[in-house]
Amino acid sequence: MTSPASGASAPIAFIDLAAQRARIGRRVDDAVQAVLASCRFINGPEVTEFEQKLAAFAGAKYAVSCSSGTDALALLLMAWGVKAGDAVFCPAFTFCATAEVVPWVGATPVFVDVKEDTFNMDPESLEQAIQVAIEQGLDPRVVIPVDLFGQPADYDAILPIAEKYGLKVLCDTAQGFGGTWNNRRTGSIGDATATSFFPAKPLGAYGDGGAILTDNEELVTILKSLREHGQGVDKYQNVRIGMTARLDTIQAAVLLEKLAIFEDEIAAREKVARRYSDLLKDVAGVPVVDPRATSVWAQYTIKLAPGVRDGLAEKLKAEGVPTAVYYRLPMHLQPAYRHYPSAGAILPVCEALAEEVISLPMHAYLDEATQDRIVDAVKRALAA
Questions:
Q1: Which residues are recorded as modified (N6-(pyridoxal phosphate)lysine) (predicted)?
Q2: How many angstroms separate the CA atoms of 204 and 251, rounded?
Q3: Domains observed in the chain
Q4: Which of 98, 204, 263, 320 is the most exposed place for a label (fewest CB within 10 A)?
Q5: Closest-CA residue to 112 (of 332, 335, 301)
Q6: What angle do the packed helices 262-280 and 249-260 form, to 10 degrees?
């Protein structure tokens, strides 16, 4: 372990994209230069190649790339004809994009509580939320489990509920792509999966990007039309109302190089996370990974007693150790969403976690010396 004096060292990166670039920067530069030379900036061959390799990695038949993880979610709701009067079930402890797309198509998000251990959607709360929707005259259509912080949701419990009520299962693996549930990669579970390539994600581009994965060929045809203005035989025939939601060729080229090292990075993230947990388990609530799952550790998030978190963050900041809080205000309490229905008058776990969680620096290139510095700082702050 390092000494307290090391707190005066240079600030630590929360997610060190520069370290990854040091490893593959030349390859990425060459890939981008090839696109620049070809001048095929939209729908270049790298897009098709990336979609094929992404699908193969996930164990899905098809991948449809798009402009962002948010658009991936929206495209699926559009493709399934979700509309006014329909209910879409979302965990309340997630980023706003999961629920944001639901009102876009006129439907109603219904918020669900999460589990205390994994922070993912609580199946019992989902059942309650479905009953609330039915009582309000809504038609239950879609459930969107979120693979929060890198860990897949409890699909063994969620999929039977979806089958019972005839729900489509849209897996939001923006944070969890590359994780597994019962040895199946995220991207090969449910009716379809949406993911994000925002730069901070475990598999991130150098700008915005996203993808949909599915085994449904007919759905793929609709999605490809929707992402290109609802085109038919060509872009001047419009057979449905669509949008502009393409992944550009430069981002596909970058992602191809990052996908090539993704397995290595997942293993490195697991090593970092295990070491964090070993070193912090006596002073904080460390993450719990379901034994049926593996996580890609998009974030490493600990739980503290209420009232402790903000003081810890300030002390760590003074030592050059950054932190982040996901999420200070659950979705069902957000001003833009609090008029929508929820599984109950309160969602107790979501509301408790919002006061208790804090995330520490996490990436595949976090060396042990830097990690020791972070752990030392956390222990000193909590002991003070």
A1: 201
A2: 9
A3: 4-10+261-383 (3.90.1150.10), 23-260 (3.40.640.10)
A4: 263
A5: 332
A6: 60
Q: Could you tell me which residues are beta bridge partners of residue 42?
A: 248
Residue 371 has pLDDT above 60, yes or no: yes
Q: Which residues are catalytic?
A: 201
Indicate the DSSP class of residue 14.
Answer: S
pLDDT digits (tens, 9 = 90+) for 90-147: 999 999 999 999 999 999 999 999 999 999 999 999 999 999 999 999 999 999 999 9
Tokens (6 digits) for 325: 């809080």
Residue ranges of the alpha helices (H) in the chain? 17-38, 45-58, 69-79, 97-104, 123-135, 155-165, 217-226, 249-260, 262-280, 309-318, 348-356, 368-383
Cross-strand pairs, 63:
213
As a whole number, mean pLDDT of residues 22-42 equals 98
Q: What is the pTM of this model?
A: 0.96
Of 281, 254, 186, 267, residue with least CA distance to 21: 254
What 3-state DSSP class applies to 13?
coil
Dihedral Cα 61, 65, 69, 72, nearest 10 deg: -70
CA 95/CA 210 separation, integer angstroms: 15
Provide Rg for the chain, Cα atoms.
Answer: 21
Question: DSSP assignment of 216-260, as one string?
Answer: -HHHHHHHHHHTBTTBSSSTT-BSS---B-PPBHHHHHHHHHHHH
Cα 215 to Cα 190, 192, 225, 358: the distances in Å are 10, 8, 17, 37
Q: What are phi and psi of 197, to 5 degrees?
A: -115, 30
> pLDDT per residue over 205-253, tens digit each?
999 999 999 999 999 999 999 999 999 999 899 999 999 999 999 999 9
For 70-88, write each residue's pLDDT tens digit: 999 999 999 999 999 999 9
Q: In the block, which residue shows the tokens 């089958």?
A: 163
